[in-house]
Structures are given as C-alpha cells and as structure tokens.
C-alpha cells in the first residue's frame, strides 16, 4: 500500500469559520481578490470578487489549494481584471519574481515561498516583441496580425503586460533583425578569399509588380559552401535591357563585392540575350568570353527539368487522366479502397507503394502517382471486371506506355532531387546527372520503338539547348573532382559526341587552362623595375668552359640534370594535378574538404576550384524545385514598402543559418539607429 504525504501551507487558508480550531495566521494575498463561500458542511468554494466566477477550494477532506486562483488573477485570465488594466482600478495580484539561485551561487535545496506570492519569470517587452517579429518572419505571417482581437486576447492570456497592438513596433523589430543579420553576413562575405557567384530570379505579383531575387553562392574560410539571399529588389521595368545589370550592380555595391563577381546564373524564360551581354562588364574575370562565355549561364537546371517533365506528362495527357481518375475512384471511397486492398492481397501483388492522388502543381507527385498505379495495374484490371461501377481502367498497352514514361520521369526526378538536400550541392555533382540525361534522351530519340522515339525527340531537342549553354562549366567543375578529373569528361563525351569527341575534349582542356592562366596572372606580384645609370638592367654573359677545365667531366651532366629538374618544376599546378592518379571513388566524398587539405600544394588551383565548385546551376530554392508555377508575391506582401518586403524575405533566409543568439540590446540598438531611415 502506498501512502502520500500532503503538506499544506497554512498561509493559503483564509480567516474563516472553516478553520475554527487552527491558530490564526497571515492570509495568502490571493484572498484580497477572492471571497470564501460555504456551500455546505463539506464544500467550500472561492468566488472571484471581480468576475464572480466560482472555483473549487475545499471538498470534504480534499484541499484544492490556491494555485489556480493565483493564475486566474496573475495571468490576466479574469476578463474583468484584464479589462480594468490601465484604468483607475486596483492592480491585480502580481506574483513576485522567483529566486532560483542563492547568494553563494548555489541552487537552494528547498523552494521557499515568496513573501508576497508565487514566483514567475519576468519577460521584458523587448523579449516578446523580438520573438514575435521572428515568428512573423519565419512563418510569413502578415504584420497586421498583431492588430487582430483574437491574437491580442491570446497573447494577453500568456502575458498580461502585452501591449503591441499596432504594426509599427513590429516593423521596427523586423528591421532590427534584418540589420543585425545583415551585419553578420557582411562579416562573412568580407572574410571570404574567393569570388562570389550570383543567381538572378524573377518573381511577380497579382499587381503586375516585378521583383528580382539575388542569391549569393560562395565558399567561406572554412571551405564550406554557403548560399544566402542577398537582395530582393522591386523593379519597375523588368523587360528593359538593363533591369538585371542595374539590380546586380546595386547588389554588389551594397555588399562591397564590386570586384568579386565570378558568374551569374539566370534563365532564358525571363532574361534576354541583351540582358546577359550587359552583365559581362560586371564580372571579375577580364576575359568574360572564356569557356565560350559560359560564365554567364542562361539556363536554370531546375527549370529545364520541370519543362522536360511537363512536356513528357503533357504528351500522354489522356492516358494520365485515366490513371488519375482510377486512383481517385479508389482513394475517395472507403468501400472502394477496401475492395481494392482485398484484390491486391488475393492477387499477391508484391508492390509496397500506396496509391496517392497527385497535386497538379507539383510534377513529382504526378510521377509518384503513376509509379504506384503502374505497379498495381493488375489490381486495376481485376477491379474493372469485379466492380461494375469502375469503368476507367486503362488498357494494358496504355499501362506499358505509363511505365515507359515513368522510366524517363525517374531520371528527371533523381536529377532534380539533388537540389532538395539541406546542403546545396557542389557544381561537380550536376555533371553526372546532366550527361546521363543527355545520353538517355539521345538513345531514346534514336530508338526503333515508335512510342519511345516520339516521346523523347522533343525532349532531346530541348535538353540539347541547355547542354550547349553550360556543358563547359559542368565539365570544368567535374575536372576539379580528384576522383574523375579529365577521365570522366573523356568517357562521357566519347559516348555523346562519337567521332567529334577529340574536338570537344580539346575545348574543355583549352578553356580550363585559359581559366587557370587568369588565376595565375592575378596571383602574381606586381612587377618591379630596377633603374641603372642608363635605365638598363645589367646582364652577365655566361663564360664558355671547355671540357679540359672540368676536373671530373661531370659538370655538363650536372647542368643537364638541373635543366630537367627545372623543367619539371615549371609544370603548372594544373598539369601536375591532372597527371596524378585518380582518387578511389567513395560515395560521401567531400570535394571541398579535399581541396582544403591540399591548398598548400595547389595554392592557385585551389582558388580556382573553390570558385568553380560553388557555381550555382539553379535559380530556384529547394522547396520550389518540383513546382510547376512561377513564384508570386501575394497581394498583401506586394502592398508593403519595398524596404520592409526585402527585410522579410532576406531575414527569413538568414535566420535559418542563425548559429547563436545575439543579445537583444544589440538588435534594439541597430533598430534604433537604422529604422529611422526606413520609416
């Protein structure tokens, strides 16, 4: 049998007839707000003096205590007490702060009751307003939610002193967070030794306002690939030839990176050829036409995959609609799904996939729906014969076509999936996916199967344009992977280009050496000149020595060996790197970590590698990789000031990388100094 020791604080008993035999003690302060009501001999209740609500207090031998009574007043639960705050009414019961640490710095062994009530944690207005602003930023809540009566009531239930009831203080906190995080990012960018790569994306709104999203990709001093949104700029004339160049120039000036821009990635769907030409003068590489001008990439990797998937799905629109309606027939009725499951068990279909209805705005969901349905095609065929109401089953020939389509969608899906990783992929990884897509589409276009050929020929034509736009950048990036170097380029190009392979390999090799030479020249110290009397350098002619002057006859041999050694030392870092054996292929190879360890061996080439491996191939964020719609700003956000909108978009991205809390005083100080210029 268990026994329970219940300790009762006598301070909690009111001075009433309920305690006739007890010594009279000082009452708890809660009784200034409650009155004892005796219901009967075994039941005593406490009534709030303000809202008149009745609470349990004593029932028979059980004592309910006063904690719930204190919460009713202290937390502002009492509606009358909350309404009277700020008026000439008696102040509600406010608990005293709880002391958890003794004077000597140790935790007390026993919790002592505060002299004037229970303990609580004091939350300053700066604390909760800062956290409120962070919540609004991270979850894209509207700023004016703080004016909603429901939110105010909820907040004051948690914190009676909550008094943010207008948008202005929230905007000030948002701008404070923005400037604080921007300062941290400025420090990160100023400390990087490499160059900056940019992506340019175009967003729109229902109000026909255009926005340019600029995202920076770079390698930090710890050789980690970083991706940060830098600016979100409203542009009045997105169709003008200079819209993007002006936005990028402003961005580089804003971040102090005018001489660090290496590449720019956009997409031909919104960036015209003239836009791209206007960007060349902003690049830090003097020869902007190096690698056939592919340092300006005009094709987005995620968009080309989306376009291929859309075209492939669209080519089988009628068949896919049959599959979709079949899946809906099963999934929208419990009886139908139960019958389908029984048929699957009877047929012993080994598929572990579950049927799902696709989202028409997300092409990966359509692929997954088709994959699951095609693996259960036998069940659908039997359902057609056993259920008279089901009349949508595709024919076996159509199921075979769906399986062929899924084989190509799987290639696109796996290629796009590398963009959904929490860590943005290095550029070398894109080459593996791109050349496999090129090869599979090429084989499909040349297939003797009429359906396969008709499906893949249009896809091949579209992807070839993408491949021509960026194949050299992709190839140079994979050469910087010590597991492959030029060998994978040679192997893949031989399968793609056939007899013309040598021409394309030479283009990659020459472009790589030209790029390396650019880095080598920039790493050399400035030339110095020594002035003589006649402004000429003094040269010493070598003396001719005959064989008789040598004591042992090996002097010339020594010179010969020295010349050979000098020639070997004169080999460039790039040539030495390419001649060394390949590293073994391991799945989780850290290519940036390898270059970090070998930067002393390849001081110039490692700088080139860090810049090349951070070139972004996609302008779309990870969460939008499979979306079939372009990004749009909603009507509310497009009505905000451009400075506030930029702060919200940028800060959401920056807070994801927040490693440690900065004292609130810092953000408040930044806000006070900077927000004045924004409002």
UniProtKB/TrEMBL annotation:
GO biological process: post-embryonic development
Coarse class of the protein's main subcellular location: nucleus
Annotated spans, Disordered: 1-27
Quaternary structure annotation from Swiss-Prot or TrEMBL: Homodimer.
Biased composition (Polar residues): 8-19
Protein's UniProt name: Zinc finger BED domain-containing protein DAYSLEEPER-like isoform X2
GO molecular function, one term: protein dimerization activity
Keyword Methyltransferase: no
Chain ranges of the BED-type domain: 25-90
Organism listed in the record: Sesamum indicum (Oriental sesame)
Superkingdom of origin: Eukaryota
Subcellular compartments: Nucleus
Keywords from the UniProt entry: DNA-binding, Metal-binding, Nucleus, Transcription, Transcription regulation, Zinc, Zinc-finger
Keyword Oxidoreductase: no
Gene Ontology cellular-component terms listed: nucleus
